[in-house]
Design brief:
Blueprint: E1 6-11, H1 15-25, E2 35-40, H2 43-51, E3 57-61, H3 62-68, E4 72-74, E5 80-82, E6 88-91, H4 97-101, E7 105-107, H5 113-122, E8 131-133, H6 139-144, E9 150-153, H7 157-160, E10 167-171, H8 172-180, E11 184-192, H9 197-216, H10 218-226, H11 234-244, H12 247-250, H13 253-269
Helix pairs in contact: 1-9, 1-10, 5-8, 9-10, 10-11
């Protein structure tokens, strides 16, 4: 495919994604002749755009990859992996797993990896869980108002929930690490299979360069990411970015690939998902 045309590049308005793409968005790394149009949407919207095949390259949930594996490959850069930490379930008072089995839980999207991890932890498919789907930034509010008994928290809420007076019921990333010894795969970048392998590899390396640039120029990349942090101060932004921009973001490696494969294969064995095609990495 010619690199004359502009490629659509989807990512979320979150500080970790902004950090990853700072080098490219600011022109600090070479685009090697490719042109990119940044499409900034929340992760649930990006999942839906990937399902429609709208974007050339995009961040999506690992959960959503099950539905687009026939048309997209996983890029070996840009992954968000929780190494002993991850999405959490919070409540107004401590709730056990047994209590949560029969509780209404507010969630930020059915296709989020957090939702699939919760299903695996509860050992229940989505259809058997009482879930209230709300935007991720409204979960605290609906739990506080009593519309839900508990909330599944992603993004910055993972490090601010106690400031809102909530109790931690479970850290799904810690549970997964204790169970498998692997990081919990949450977000990935994917690229359409209509590109040939050489093109996919070159575009992957451009985006990898952007991640590395951010890590090597931390103060300026954090300052850029701060505008997408929904009011967090610089220290909190740096704390959140450090959680989800790590060695697996630069390169999945064999361990990162195993984590993704195990997460999806275990969910398929349970009947929680149905893979649309084989898992492919580039």
């Amino acid at each position: 495919m010619s690199n004359d045309r502009t490629l659509t590049l989807g990512h979320s308005p979150d500080s970790d994604d902004a950090f990853m793409f700072y080098g490219l968005a600011s022109g600090k790394v070479s685009n090697r002749g490719w042109r990119f149009k940044h499409v900034i949407k929340d992760i649930q919207s990006l999942n839906e755009l990937a399902l429609a095949g709208t974007l050339d390259i995009t961040a999506i949930s690992v959960h959503a990859y099950a539905l687009v594996a026939d048309s997209y490959s996983i890029m070996t850069m840009g992954a968000s992996m929780g190494d002993g930490y991850g999405p959490i379930i919070i409540a107004r008072s401590p709730l056990t797993r047994e209590r949560l089995m029969d509780s209404r839980i507010a969630i930020p999207g059915l296709l989020t990896s957090a939702c699939l991890a919760m299903q695996l932890w509860l050992d229940k498919p989505a259809r058997d869980i009482d879930m209230l789907v709300v935007p991720f930034d409204k979960v605290f509010q609906v739990v506080s108002d009593g519309e839900a008994d508990a909330g599944l928290i992603i993004h910055e809420g993972q490090i601010t929930y106690n400031e809102h007076g909530f109790h931690l019921c479970i850290d799904l990333g810690k549970w997964w690490k204790d169970l498998t010894g692997l990081p919990l795969p949450l977000g990935i970048n994917v690229i359409k299979n209509l590109f040939n392998h050489t093109e996919q590899s070159e575009i992957t390396e451009i985006l990898r360069d952007s991640v590395i640039y951010g890590l090597n120029h931390l103060p300026e990349a954090i300052e850029y990411a701060k505008q997408y942090s929904r009011g967090l101060n610089t220290n909190k932004v740096e704390q959140f970015v450090s959680l989800y921009v790590n060695k697996w973001t630069v390169d999945l490696g064999e361990e990162g690939k195993r984590a993704i494969e195990l997460f999806l294969n275990r969910a398929q064995e349970k009947g929680f998902i149905q893979m649309s095609g084989p898992i492919k990495f580039v």
